[in-house]
Amino acid sequence: MAAATTVESALPVAPLPTVMIEPLVRAALQEDLGRAGDLTTDAIVPADTQTRARLVARQDGVLAGLDLARLAFRLMDPAIEVRAALADGARLRPGAEIAVIEGPARAMLTAERTALNFLCHLSGVATATAAIADAIRPHGAKVTCTRKTLPGLRAVQKYAVRVGGGSNHRHGLDDAVLIKDNHVAVAGGVRQAVQRARAAIGHLVKIELEVDTLEQLDEALELGVDVVLLDNMDLPTLREAVRRAKGRAVTEASGGITPDTAPAVAATGVDLMAIGWLTHSARALDIGLDS
Known about the structure:
The chain is α/β, with parallel strands linked by helices. Helices cover 42% and strands 18% of the residues. The protein has two domains: 18-128 and 283-290, Aldehyde Oxidoreductase, domain 3 (Alpha-Beta Complex), CATH 3.90.1170.20; 133-281, TIM Barrel, CATH 3.20.20.
């Protein structure tokens, strides 16, 4: 039975425009079709065969990526009709009917794997994000993703994080400054790195600085950075870092955070928790196309 519950978020998650997702779906279909098309389906299924199938959840999770799945079917044949029973953000239970698909059988079978690849992967990202968001909700911290995304899929993976109740860190190298340890080493120190960054950027660009110790944190706060990335700190150190930074900079924890450890990290009072595996290693959600 389908669950109607959606993931809690401050604002509804706007769907990605078709102009953004269509190149991804076209490229995936072209990769699968190769040089000769779907040899199996074209040989077995008569050209005029019509069929009906359902997208069905096979495990608990959060739905994301339905627009990409729909587009995969429609690009193969506009005559395919996809009637969604649920929307992205819905909490799924095993057996939940996500959508009914009707139309030319050849096109439906050819698009099946591409549609499911997007739907299962992005639902997996949303599900993993929701697990963290649910675990830390009593503490008020937000879960954020990183730039550790699969090449070419950043926009849709970050969309899935939002669907799962998380927030996005910077989308690329061009929308914020994040000074990490290697930048500091090459620049010759924290002060030099921050001063050079501030001199080069526009007034709307924020500066985040990665710190590993309380001493580095104190220097960062003195320099007036906007955000401090508290990297791989133990809980007592993290708690003290949050105390020192309160009212002076946004605090973001990172480093090996899991659903099990997330509540304790959030309880230190950090504002944000950056988790790279949400996008680069999230387990796909099991969703199938059933006749």
